[in-house]
Amino acid sequence: MTDIPLGDAAPAAPRPARSILETDARTRARNRAETRFRAYGLAALLVGLFFLVFLMSSILWNGLGAFTQTRFALDVELLESELDPEGTRDPAVIAKTSTFGYGDLIEAALAKAVAASGIQTDLEPGDLADILSSGAAAQIRDRVTADPSLVGQTVSFDLLASSRVDGYIKGRVTRESLADDKNLSPAHLDIVDALVADGTIARSFNMAFITGADASEKRPEEAGMGVAMVGSLYVMLTVLALALPIGVAASIYLEEFAPKNRFTDFIEVNIANLAAVPSIVYGILGLAVFIQFAELPQSAPLVGGLVLTLLTLPTIIIATRAALKAVPPSIRDAALGVGASRMQAVFHHVLPLAVPGIMTGTIIGMAHALGETAPLLLIGMVGFVASNYPDGALHGFVSPNSAMPAQVYEWAKRADPAFYERAWGGIIVLLVFLLLMNLVAVLVRRRFERRW
Amino acid sequence: MFHVKQPATALALVLLATPALARDNIQVAGSSTVLPYATIVAEAFGENFDFPTPVVEGGGTGSGLARFCEGVGENQIDIANASRPMRASEFETCQANGVTDIIEVRIGYDGIVFASQKGGASFAFTPAQWYNALAAQVVQDGQIVANPYTNWSQIDPSLPDQPILAFIPGTKHGTREVFEQRVLEQGCKDSGAEDAFVAANGGDEDAAGDSCIALRTDGLSNDIDGDYNETLARLEANPDGVGVFGLAFYENNTDTLQVATMSGVTPSTETIASGEYPVSRPLFFYVKKAHIGVIPGLKEFAEFFVSDDLAGEGGPLADYGLVADPELATTQQIVTDETVMAAPAS
After folding, report:
1. N or C, fewer C-beta in 10 Å, chain A?
2. Secondary structure of residue B27 in the 3-state scheme
């Protein structure tokens, strides 16, 4: 700038001497803006992190309790006079005694156990039974019908304590909170305290939560995720078997073979839009098409899988097309150049290179489907559904079942607060599955993906 | 329809619809009030019989009966739970869709209770107070005016000085109808507002009845379309709120809820059974007769539901909060004989 002739104007005042080490006001302002921006970014990150930590810790805090359960070791005298008066030991005769017939045996055994622990109580034997789960009778009956020779003996059972007792051991239920409670009284807790002291009542790892079936509203202590997990497995198998081949075939056609015209453009726009359709819409579609029109059974994981296939397809198609697009044209050209047909070029050269991307997309699409509840609501998979394991491997597709997120939703709706803990525990199980699937997706991408 | 998913749908239908899939489990849906009882029975049924455990879904009385009346067939539900009797309009839909023979089964009675957060002020309500708190129009000094009350103590000095904030069941719940009949209409009558409405409508009692149950829309009365857990969550967020619950739900949550008396009576299975507590209603389930003999175990399930072991006094349903029906034997006979219900009076 100093080279510009200034004519006869007076020479400009010399600029003040200034070190480049010294920053001027403008530079300082720019630097401040950058510092501020960094602080905003960091703050945003911290807020995100805070919510993540908050979410994770509240899930663990609320849900870990579901993984332990209070159990009651009880010796029950299986009176012949009650269960098999004729002494036949015929399983058909023994099966005639319903679970209600075992109530007296349990009450007698409980009264004995309480007396043995040396506590005086005013509670009637009928009221004492509130300490135990109402599922105890079924547990004993199942053992006896399976092995009739037990009748007449005294057998020790590891029975579930009722949900209120379990809540007391876990600190959720207190004497104060039982003040108006009909299910358990503070007097019961005195007995529980004594039985805990002599080791009859103890809290142990709750395998039944991971392997068990759903239970009715009266027995939160019995409820487990096992059957819902199997339901989710069958749903995912259906999704995988349908969405992957259809999605990949559609993508290959659209990407490699289809002519570029208004019709294929229209299809492309629709696929992109389908990915954004609210999932409940697929549920309504599933109800109308699969159940009402095709007359497939209600509450069947097969129908759930079909509905979620529709939901997953766009995700898989978009991911697969991106993976195919990422394969450089030189690969195709080289294959075509040495005389391969277009199909050979695609299947021998392009597709193998796109597999990691396709797999990542498929796994993420399926993880998304695994967490879906809304479409299942309308096809009968939410409710008291996951109560039995399917009879056989193929039955699993059609016998009524729920899915993991639907089970969590169902538990969160129920009246007994003990189900609340179950719901959070179910979230932990679901999250473990989702994290595993995402981990596999990341590993596949890291291990096999090629970049050009 | 001809999107890319069409081939998927078509393929799936061809592959899977061909073999006839016989259903061997019972499908139940409907009232969320009856749902807990139905799950308890379903579980015990699975334990004691060789039939598979029935599938029980919720969804509300209205949606359950709508699904029930869609038709007869294996892809239709067998039983609808209801917390109110079937309406004439629903019965007609059923008939039109081929669901002609319906067995109506009354399982017992249930109380509707009014509860607020534990530790807050305690309430002693009358229906008239509820009417004055929630109605869109009330009668003040002989004039019909838009509801001016915002505080319970403005309605009656005996009530606590607390803002009115009510969470009541939404219209898809059967509980709502009972609430309207036993509380709002009763309160409308008791407070004398009904006469004023009849006079204002020129003697038209139906219009007066509609005015009695028209609710204010200024946010002080909130419809809850979800289940009681949602009402509970709203109460926890709003310490001033009062919610409407089923007796069984309250009895499971006595650690967080305190119950209000209605006309001086505390709700319990005893006061409901004796008829002292005014806000109670019968619970029902409806069975498709055409499905008996087709769906295995359907009749056994219905009989088991109303057996003395389950629905009787001291049975597991009564333990959970159901008020046993004194005429249970009649109901058992109806189920055994498969007696079909007559068209309800509209």
Report:
1. N
2. strand
Q: Could you give the CA distance from residue B230 to residue B233 in angstroms, rounded to a whole number?
A: 5
Q: Is B1 helix (H, G, I), strand (E, B) or coil?
A: coil
Interchain CB distance below 8 Å, B47 and A271: no
- DSSP single-letter state for residue A70: E
Q: Are A181 and B255 a contacting pair, CB within 8 Å?
A: yes
Banded pLDDT at A1 (limits 50, 70, 90): very low
Residue B45 near residue B54, CB atoms below 8 Å: yes
The CATH 3.40.190.10 domain(s) of chain B lie at: 24-109+281-337, 111-280
Q: What are phi and psi of B108, to 5 degrees?
A: 155, -165
- For residues A10 and A345, the model is more confident at A345
The answer to whether the beta carbons of residues B266 and B136 sit under 8 Å apart is no
Decide: helix, strand or coil at residue B221. Answer: strand
Residue at B209: amino acid letter: G
Query: Pairing mode, if any, of strands B280-288 and B55-59?
Result: unpaired
Nearest to B87 by CA among B169, B177, B168, B170: B177
Pick the CATH number of B111-280 from 3.30.70.60, 3.40.190.10, 3.90.1150.200, 3.30.200.20: 3.40.190.10
CA–CA gap between residue B219 and residue B91 (Å, rounded): 35
Tokens of A432: 């473990």
Closest residue to A415, CB basis, from B4, B52, B228:
B228
pTM given for the model: 0.85
Strand partners, B292: B295
d(CA B294, CA B27): 13
Class of domain A226-448: mainly alpha
The CA dihedral of B33, B44, A71, A142, to the nearest 10 degrees, is -170
B282: buried, middle or exposed (CB in 10 Å: 19+, 13-18, 0-12)?
middle
Instruction: Work out the widest C-alpha separation in chain A, in whole angstroms.
Output: 134
At B171 the pLDDT is 86
* Mean pLDDT (chain A, rounded): 89
Whether the CB-CB separation of B326 and B140 falls below 8 Å is answered with: no
Residue B198 clears pLDDT 50, i.e. is over it: yes
Confirm or reject contact between B263 and chain A (CB < 8 A).
no
Lowest average pLDDT, out of A255-269, A374-388, B3-17, goes to B3-17
Could you please state the CATH topology (level 3) that the domain comprising B24-109+281-337 is classified under.
D-Maltodextrin-Binding Protein; domain 2 (3.40.190)
- Whole-angstrom Cα distance, residue A158 to residue A135? 12
Rounded to an integer, what distance in angstroms lies between the CA atom of residue A3 and that of residue A5?
Answer: 6
- Sorted by sequence, the CB contacts under 8 Å of residue A343 that are 6+ apart come out as none
Contact B47 A383 (CB under 8 A): no
Rounded CA separation B214/A204 (Å): 54
Q: Where are the domains of chain A?
A: 64-205, 226-448
Chain A residue with the nearest C-alpha to that of B256:
A177
What spatial distance separates the first Cα and last Cα of chain B, rounded to whole Å? 41
To 10 degrees, what angle do helices A163-170 and A186-197 make? Answer: 70
A71: three-class secondary structure by DSSP: strand
- The verdict on a CB contact (< 8 Å) between A182 and B58 is no
